[in-house]
Write a sequence for this structure.
């Protein structure tokens, strides 16, 4: 067995209406509709966002590498990004000038979440998709899908 702990995965086909949807999916959906997303708290809370392509590669390495057997691995980028940074990148990539709607912090929300990815890196894996590239790809793919409909 191998245990993988995924941090905040993002990419195409995340349903923004799902109760399990990530913040990036929700933000993209709102901004694409010209609507400001809601940020609970000051927006400085941070998460370790990782693109689905990097997650797939982590799965394959963990499945195939003989030294992975019986171990647990964090799957993230090892880089914290605030919700305001995500919002600002999306605004920039879409040329929008939206302002987020701030609401009070939600009880129980974790302020900062960051993966220690050294164990996975020891198997030869490292993340390759940075946040800006991943968001740009996501927005482009969503646009292409909408044009086909």
């Amino acid at each position: 067995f191998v245990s993988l702990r995924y941090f905040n995965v993002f990419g195409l086909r995340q349903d923004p209406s799902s109760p399990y949807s990530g913040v990036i999916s929700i933000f993209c959906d709102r901004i694409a509709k010209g609507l400001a997303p809601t940020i609970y708290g000051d927006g400085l809370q941070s998460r370790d966002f990782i693109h689905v392509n990097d997650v797939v590669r982590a799965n394959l390495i963990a499945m195939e590498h003989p030294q992975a057997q019986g171990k647990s691995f964090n799957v993230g980028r090892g880089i914290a990004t605030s919700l305001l940074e995500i919002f600002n990148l999306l605004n920039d990539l879409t040329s929008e000038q939206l302002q987020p709607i701030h609401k009070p912090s939600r009880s129980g929300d974790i302020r900062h979440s960051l993966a220690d990815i050294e164990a996975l890196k020891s198997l030869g894996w490292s993340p390759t998709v940075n946040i800006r590239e991943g968001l740009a790809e996501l927005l482009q793919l969503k646009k292409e899908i909408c044009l086909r409909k």
